[in-house]
Amino acid sequence: MITLGAIIGFEYRFAPAANLQIGAHRSLLFKTIQIFARHDTIRRSDRMPVGVSGHEDHDHDVPGTSDADHSVEEERMFYAGLGGRLRLRPTVFIVGEIIPRTGFTPGAHQWAAGIEKRTDGHQFQLNVSNSFGTTNAQLARGGTPGNVYLGFNLARKF
Predict the structure, then answer these.
(1) Whose CA is closest to 110, among 128, 95, 131?
(2) Chain centroid to CA 153: how far?
(3) Which of 25, 79, 91, 102 is deepest in the core (most CB within 10 A)?
(4) Alpha-carbon distance 109 to 100, whole Å?
């Protein structure tokens, strides 16, 4: 049996300062709401090809939702992801990320790869991944070994 469906996430973020972002993300997966802040400690520029950001978030499931796969022990977890973007053309990029995991048993290392197209204020991305999570806590639980999921992202920058 083949099951098709979509995990949709809606996100709103704004930048009160050049190196700080604050936002909220709502995922249809377990009806999770994520409140987050991101601080760009080292910003990528023409002189610096690498950026480093710190991210703090809090996930909250809507009361009344439960799932056997979702029942993970509450524990504090730290993980570091590594991502990159390679420009193929002025508005076309290849993107990828990996989130290695240690000390937490569910799931496998999460990975994703995709192709991205930018236009006037829009960003379109077609990607593949071994996880269908959309929030940091869902990604921290890891991917599914042997499975590959197809995804699509659309972003608008004002």
Answers:
(1) 131
(2) 10
(3) 25
(4) 5
The three-state secondary structure class of 15 is strand
Q: 52: which residues sit within 8 A by CB, 6+ positions away? A: 40, 41, 42
Q: Which two tokens stand for residue 158?
A: 């004002």
Closest to 55 (Cα-Cα) out of 42, 80, 78, 38: 38
Mention every residue, 6+ apart, whose C-beta is less than 8 A from residue 126: 114, 115, 150, 151, 152
As given in the structure block, the two tokens for residue 78 are 């730290």
Kindly report, residue by residue over 75-89, the tens digit of the pLDDT.
556 667 888 888 999
pLDDT in tens, 99-157: 887 666 666 888 999 999 999 889 999 999 988 877 777 777 778 888 888 888 888 87
Distance of CA 121 to the CA centre of its chain: 20
Positive or negative: CA dihedral 136, 126, 97, 107: positive
Residue 134 has φ and ψ, to the nearest 5°, of -120, -10
Only one residue has tokens 């809507």, namely 62
Model pTM above 0.90: no
